[in-house]
Amino acid sequence: MRAVVQRVKQASVSVDGSLVSKIQRGHLVFLGVESGDTRQDLEYMVDKIVNLRVFEDDQEKMNLSVKDVGGELLVVSQFTLCGDCRKGRRPSFSSAAGPEDAEFYYEEFCRLAEEQGIPVKKGVFRAHMEVSLINDGPVTMLLDSKRLF
To answer: pLDDT value at position 149?
Structure first.
């Protein structure tokens, strides 16, 4: 499982010109589910993202989590994070989970994050989305549940 996590002042998702979800301060999370991902991968990602200390404290050090600052998550499913661009010029998506598994883990990710007390908004699974954001910092983190980077 892979994620791109961006600290945002605000973020939103629209589909067909209609606003679907919007958050203020928090994380925009692009989540890619790979075939072979397990409950352990899911739990690792939820724990890592809700407790990732990238918000500034009173001394302007990144020392607070989205949970600490009362922030929100906007979670967008993005299978392209599973793309392999090492060979040729067209990405291979053979490592991406199939739609049923990907949707299950996407929904479970959102549910588990909500259980941690984080307000969660979502994109629309398998839809063509327009994502807007104001990245705060900018702060952008890459996460991989297999700890490849």
So the answer is: 84
